[in-house]
Each structure stands twice: as C-alpha cells, then as structure tokens.
C-alpha cells in the first residue's frame, strides 16, 4: 500500500532530481564556454610572449655583440630557453590543430632564431669579425619574421575569436531560451503534480464529508464510497462504508424490534381485554368436566378438556417461543372443538414428520391459520370441506402446509393479504389473531429468514405454505445423515 507520506517523498525526490538536472545543465554549459574562452585567451598570451621573447633575444644578442659583456649572455640564454619552451607549448596547443601549416612555419622560424642567435654569440666569442655581423643580421631578420608571423597569427586568432564570440552569443541566447523553457516546463510539471496529488487527497475527503453530512442528516442510503488510491484514504473509505452499513442494519434491527414490541403489546392488551380470571375460568371448566364425566357425558368432557387446553395455550405468554409440537397440540384441540361442533361439515387431516417437532416458532401461529381456513374457507361453503395440515423436512428447513377445500379467495383479496392487509374482519376468531398478525410475527421472530407462500382461487380452496428453520441440532444431524 502506498501511503500519503511515501507519495510526498516520491514527489519531493522528483523535484530534487529536476532541480539537479537544471543545475547540472547550467554548470556544464558554463564550464564549456569557460574552457573555450580560456583556450583562446591562452593562445593570445602565448603568441604575445613569443613575440616579446624573440625581440628580447635579438636585443640581448646584439648588446653582447656590441659591448662584449657576459651578463648579456645569461639574459640571451634565458630568452632562448623560454622561446624554445614556448615552441613546445605551441606544438601542443589548439592553434597547431587549427592551423597546422602556418604553425609549422612559425615554429621553424622560432628554432631558426634560436640557432642564429647561438651562432652569433659563438662568432662574437671567437672574435670572428667578418662572420658574426652576417649572423647578427640574420637574427634581426628572423626576429622580424617572427614578429610578422605573430601578428598574422594574432590576426587569425582574432578572426577565429570573433567567430567564437558570435557563436557564443548565439549559444548564450539559445541557452537562455533553453533555461527559460526548462524553468517553465519544470514549473508546469510541478503545478500539474501538485494538482494531481492534492486532487487525489481532497476529492476523497470531500466525498467522505458529503457522505458524513448525509449520514448526520439521517440519509443512510446511497452507493458505497470508492477510493481507487491504495493509501490511508482507501482504508478510511472502507471503514466508513462498513460503518454506514452497520448503522443501517442496526436501525433496521431497531425498527424490527420496535415493531415486535408493538405487536406484542397489542397482543397482551387484547389478551387482557378478552380474558376472565384464568384460575377462575380453568377451575370452573374443570368442575364442569368432572360433572360431565360423572354423568357419563364423555363427549362433553372431551370437549371441555379441548376448550380448556386451547384457552390455557392462548392465554399463555406470547413472548415465549414454543416448539412446533406444542403448536400442533393446540391445533389438535381446535380440531377437536370444531369436529364436535360440525361433525358432518368439516374433516381434518394431519401428516407430521416427527423429526420436525422440536423446531422453534412463535406461539399462536398454526391455530389462527387453521381457524382462518375454517371461518373464511369452510363455513361459507354449504357442503363443508376439508382442512389438512402437513409437516415435512426439506434440507435445513421445516415445511408446514395448511390447505383447505373451501370457497377460496378472489385475486384482489389475495393481493391485499400479500401486501399486509387482512382478508376480512376476524369476527368469531377464538384469539382475534389474523393472518397479517401471524405473518408479521413470523418475520420478526426469524428476522426475515422465513418464507411464506399463499395460493388461492375462487372455488378452488386456499393453500398456505410456511418454511421455517429447523432446530439447530436437528439440522446438524440431518447434514450428517446426508
């Protein structure tokens, strides 16, 4: 992951490299100009020194020939030595490369001057009066030739220097343009990199600020924030997205919990409104049951027992989860009561997989569904009908099917139930709990993990299918068996 600190260090390194490149370019160009100027200047100095040494050599030799003073010999020897040294320097100079022919003649004159001066000094020492004047005259002539050659060479050098100066002016102007262009390019590159870097930081921050403001205003929906840069801002965006998702989920859970509490309070209130003192009612029903049994009215005794069982179950704690087996017992009591009331109009059929009985579910689910099937499906039908309950396992789920052969429902009624409404007023229900109540409590209890299917048509009956999670140990054993 590239951190913001690493990016800053990288950008700083780029700027340092650019600065060093510009500085080195300026230094290299200046050094090249200086070397060329120094070389030309050294050539001028060398030619000037050769001219002075040739003149000095002639003067010292002539003074020795006239005055015969040995002091002039030392000065002449020093001048000759310096002249020959300069001849070697001239051979290694750039002028020998630029003007090889003229330099060869010029150096030859310098050597001739040194030789003639030596011959003149030797003739003066030997007192050869008829010889040394000719050599002295030759020294004077050669020295003059050296002077002329020096002037010609200086003239050539000045012409060359003029061209060099003109070229240097052009190169200096070009270099100034290059420096200005390089400065502008570096500045533009620096501005562009600064904009890109700041944009990579400010844009995600602005996006996060907007999302945070929306979140503080209660607007939790919207797409996740995407930050493509793999730095701290990317991790911050991921954490913010996770926090917003957790907040949404927490609010939904709070809403579901509030809805469940509201429904439970309504159920408790309805129970309080409908119930008589349970102990008094159960004791009274038990007394009636005993009297009927003593009078050999066994059917009446069984009916009272079924009513007592169903009443006791419906008046229980609706907040407590029950097993599917307990729900089926309450349904059996309801079957027994209605079978006694309408022996020829309704038939009940039940098919149960015993391995599913430990599945947990809210209280008062099956009995209201069966009662709804009886009141709205079977009772309006003159010839009566049949209600069937089927319980089976399907993988890790328990499938509960309640079907009737009643009058069925119109499509608009079915749509209203699916949308959360009631099929009709539940007048005459034993508990006052309708389908909408049942489905909502299932949804809240299982947190949306249940599935409800409704199928009905006029004259073709109704089928309600519930899919709920099996008991944990049951599901585990089932998986092992598979």
Overview features:
two-stranded antiparallel sheet; 7 strands; A middle domain of Talin 1; 70% helix; Heat Shock Protein 90; 5-stranded mixed β-sheet; alpha+beta; 482 residues
Ordered list of secondary-structure elements with their pairings:
Blueprint: H1 4-67, H2 71-91, H3 94-98, H4 100-125, H5 132-216, H6 232-274, H7 278-294, H8 298-314, E1 322-323, H9 324-341, E2 346-352, E3 360-361, H10 366-378, E4 385-394, E5 397-404, H11 411-418, H12 435-446, E6 451-456, E7 462-469, H13 472-481
Structural class: alpha+beta
- The appropriate CATH architecture of the largest domain is Up-down Bundle
| Overall geometry | rod-shaped
The share of residues in extended strands comes to: 5-15%
* Contiguous helical run count: 13
CATH names the topology of the largest domain as: A middle domain of Talin 1
Q: What helical percentage do the residues reach?
A: over 70%
- The overall pLDDT, averaged over residues, is 77
Unreliable spans are: 474-482
Radius of gyration using CA atoms only: 60 Å
Care to count the β-strands? Answer: 7
**Lateral strand order in the biggest sheet:** 2-4-5-7-6
Structural account:
It is a single chain. The chain is α+β, with helices and mostly antiparallel strands and 482 residues long. 70% of the residues lie in helices and 9% in strands. It has helices at 4-67, 71-91, 94-98, 100-125, 132-216, 232-274, 278-294, 298-314, 324-341, 366-378, 411-418, 435-446, 472-481; strands at residues 322-323, 346-352, 360-361, 385-394, 397-404, 451-456, 462-469. It has a five-stranded mixed β-sheet with strand order 2-4-5-7-6. A two-stranded antiparallel sheet has the order 1-3. A hairpin with a 5-residue loop joins strand 6 and strand 7. The longest helix has 85 residues, at 132-216. It starts with a helix and ends with a helix.
